Amino acid sequence: MSTTRTATFAAIGVLSLAGCGDAQQTVDQNNETLQAVSSFSILTDMVEEIAGEHVEVYNLVPVGQDPHEYEALPDDSKAMADADIFFYNGLNLEGGEHGWAARMADAVELDADHRVEAAEGVEPMYLSEGLTDSVNPHAFLDPNVGMIMADNIAEGLSEADPDNAAAYEQNLDDYLAELSQLDAQYQQEIGDLAEERRVLVTSERAFQYVAERYDLREGYIWSVDTDDVGTPDQIISAIDFVNTYEPPALFVESNVTPAPMETVAEDTGVEIYATVYSDELAPEGEPGDTYLGFLEENLTRISEGLQQ
Ligand SMILES: [Zn+2]
User: Fold this and answer.
1) What is the full DSSP assignment across 47-99?
2) In the listed set 122, 152, 184, which residue is the last one of a domain according to the structure?
3) How far apart are CA 10 and CA 254, in angstroms?
């Protein structure tokens, strides 16, 4: 999956080298390029894939930091001030209507129609039943949700930059085909597991949408990273879950402290099989450093871990 991206970058490299002799043309082209800002690494990669070479995309929350809570840097505010279009996940990922991302867009008085909520139209799931303010933001872990987000991204780009709408549509079609292929892989690999092995335990409750879509029983230590994480009560209840449903393996996310899951592993004798990704891509150059790669890596690690 990452080869496509490398090939695209290589092609852009060749084009800009070829354009070196004509500085004026390069400057003009740069001025015409749509300036986009995107809130976190997963979404930024999706925007880049659908935008292709027509858009410059500035990423806010870097890999290694938490998109639930984020403090903007001066460069971020500057990028926001220059942005033609701003992409954010929504579903409360960035703290909701009054969260950090909305405040940044408000601070530069960005028009509402220049803000694209990627998860618009996604059926929300809730961390606490009946509590509508407890929406779980992690819908993007499900490739089917990725398709809705990709549609919204392409629509936002086409509205902001109608001249390149055909290119965005084409990129969208290619991207949707890859996501649909991934969905089929999820169905097959998870569906192939014996029912008693279809138990997924992670630290944060980030896999709720995936569990519902592909019929996994879901265990976790805490419900969302912004709450208390790894309290003794939470650990005890995760240990109970593991003892009751006996998953073949446990998983820990790349962006959380592993200590609470290590306690669960020691107490139950069930080992941590691998790291999975919830709120961020893998570091650049590693498998999982694109959204498609992220989905694929999670599936591979989960299905291998639950098979053993
Ligand atoms: Zn999260």
Assistant:
1) HHHHHGGGEEEEEEEPTTS-TTS----HHHHHHHHH-SEEEE--TTTTSGGGS
2) 184
3) 29
Q: Residue 70 falls within a domain, yes or no? A: yes
Binned at pLDDT 50, 70 and 90, residue 14 comes out as: very low
The CA 100 to ligand 1 mean position distance, Å, reads 15
Distance in Å, CA 175 to ligand 1 centroid: 24
Minimum mean pLDDT range among 108-122, 123-137, 264-278: 123-137
Distance 189 CA to ligand 1 centre (A): 24
Give me the domain span that covers residue 87.
32-184
Q: Are residues 199 and 118 in the same domain?
A: no
The yes-or-no verdict on residue 4 having pLDDT over 70 is no
Confidence bin at 225 (pLDDT 50/70/90)? confident
Q: Quick check: 51 and 171 in contact, CB under 8 A?
A: yes
pLDDT band at 40 (very low <50, low <70, confident <90, very high): very high
Distance from residue 257's CA to the centre of ligand 1 (Å): 13
Tell me, yes or no, whether 56 and 168 share the same domain: yes
Q: 136 C-alpha vs ligand 1 centroid, how far in Å? A: 9
**Span from the CA of 66 to the centroid of ligand 1 (angstroms):** 8
Domains: count for the chain: 2
pLDDT one-digit tens code per residue, 127-158? 988 777 789 999 999 999 999 999 999 999 99
Distance 204 CA to ligand 1 centre (A): 7
Cα-Cα end-to-end distance for the chain: 26
Residues 100 and 229 in one domain: no
> What letter would DSSP give residue 279?
S
For residue 253, how far is its CA from the centre of ligand 1 (angstroms)?
A: 9
Distance 138 CA to ligand 1 centre (A): 6
Same domain, 108 and 215: no
Residue 7 belongs to some domain of the structure: no
* One domain for residues 80 and 165: yes
Asked whether residue 27 is domain-assigned, the answer is no
